[in-house]
Amino acid sequence: MGSHRPGVTNFVHVGLVVEDLDETVRFLALLGFDCGEPGVLSGAWIDRIIGLENVTVEVVMARAPDGSDMFEVVRFHSPSAGAHELGPAANRPGLRHVAFKVDDVRGLVDRAREAGWETVGEIVDFENTFLLCYVRGPEGLIVELAERLDGSTG
Questions:
Q1: CA–CA separation, 142 vs 135, rounded Å?
Q2: Cα separation of 44 and 17, whole Å?
Q3: Long-range contacts of residues 47-54, Cβ cutoff 8 Å, at least 24 apart
Q4: For residue range 63-76, what is the model confidence (pLDDT) as tens digits?
């Protein structure tokens, strides 16, 4: 067996800080996430974890259909950093996009457009294996949608 080395054991969630919680939840729900009811959290324990004082946050957990909590969507009531530049390019350093498998990229992109969101680029057929598309959600969030095409393996 060997000696145990501490390390990552599994994925938990991505923390997404937003100014407009309702709009972000609307976007994630449209993509197929099960978004829970918002809860308000505060206390010394949060202050100590994130290194800020007098923190009050409103939190919604967005769960993927496979049951995993994918997004912890957080709006800070205090302290507020204020809105910053929206819509950074896909090559801006930092956590820039999150990818998910979907069953119908074109149908989901149509629904997103009808709801007021746009793609970053085009829907692309990657080597007859995946249909891929980046959708720009609220506040600069980019979600990559990947539909595995029939006949491909893996």
A1: 6
A2: 19
A3: 52/79, 53/79, 54/78, 54/79
A4: 998 888 789 999 99
Tokens of 113: 């457009």
Give me the phi and psi of 23, to 5 degrees please: -65, -40
Query: What phi, psi does 69 have (nearest 5°)?
Result: -75, 105
Is the predicted pLDDT of residue 151 greater than 70, yes or no?
no
**At residue 63, what is the residue type?**
R
CB 118 within 8 A of CB 138: no
Q: How many domains does the chain have?
A: 2
One domain for residues 65 and 101: no
Boundaries of domain holding 151 = 96-154
For residues 123 and 145, is the Cβ–Cβ distance under 8 A?
no
Q: pLDDT (tens digit, 9 = 90+) per residue, 80-139?
A: 776 565 566 777 777 788 999 999 999 999 999 999 999 999 999 999 999 999 999 998
